[in-house]
Amino acid sequence: MHDPFSPGPFGGFDFMFTLMPVIILIGFAAFFAIVAVGIARHIRNTRAPRRTVYARVAAKRMEVTGSSNMHHHADGAVHHGFGSRTDYYITLEFENGERREFLDVKNLYGLVVEGDVGYAAIQGDWIVAFERQPMTHMGHNPGM
């Protein structure tokens, strides 16, 4: 019978002390890579030139991400925690028929409706302003 605590290639503590640091290192590297990509994306969008384009609001969506956790305190109390984040996206259709989705960073989601036409200020992957134009006959704008 094999002793799980004996030294060897896959036995006992030797395996744990060899593999666990590698797993922890990979976890830290993945975490920092995700954070670095997010920071780089934010910097790229911040530095991108702001352009104004004529477009139609083709779609809207929201994405909710969250996590829940439970903490046990020394006095026996249990604390339930929940954190969530909601990102709002607006898809614009341009005059040439191209569609592109933008992250709403200026709380425009509740102010625009699918089908609205107007001038959108975009900066990188962000939509930062939308100026609705009056609709013409039967709700169609001749420019779109």
Please give a structural write-up.
It is a single chain. The protein has 144 residues and is α+β, with helices and mostly antiparallel strands. The chain has two domains: 1-47; 50-144, OB fold (Dihydrolipoamide Acetyltransferase, E2P). The protein is built from one helix and five strands. A five-stranded mixed β-barrel has the order 1-2-3-5-4. β1 and β2 form a beta hairpin. The chain is elongated and about 75 Å long.
Number of contiguous helices: 1
Query: What is the helix/strand order?
Result: HEEEEE
Number of strands: 5
Structural class: alpha+beta
User: What general outline do the C-alpha atoms trace?
Assistant: elongated
Mean pLDDT: 86
Count of distinct structural domains? 2
Would you tell me which CATH topology of the largest domain applies?
A: OB fold (Dihydrolipoamide Acetyltransferase, E2P)
CATH class of the largest domain: Mainly Beta
What is the strand arrangement across the widest sheet? 1-2-3-5-4
Report how far the terminal alpha carbons are from each other.
78 Å
Report the β-strand fraction as a percent range. Answer: 35-45%
**In angstroms, what is the radius of gyration?**
25 Å
The second-level CATH architecture of the largest domain is Beta Barrel
Largest sheet: number of strands, sense, barrel closure? 5 strands, mixed, barrel
Could you estimate the helical fraction of the residues in percent?
25-40%
Low-confidence stretches: none
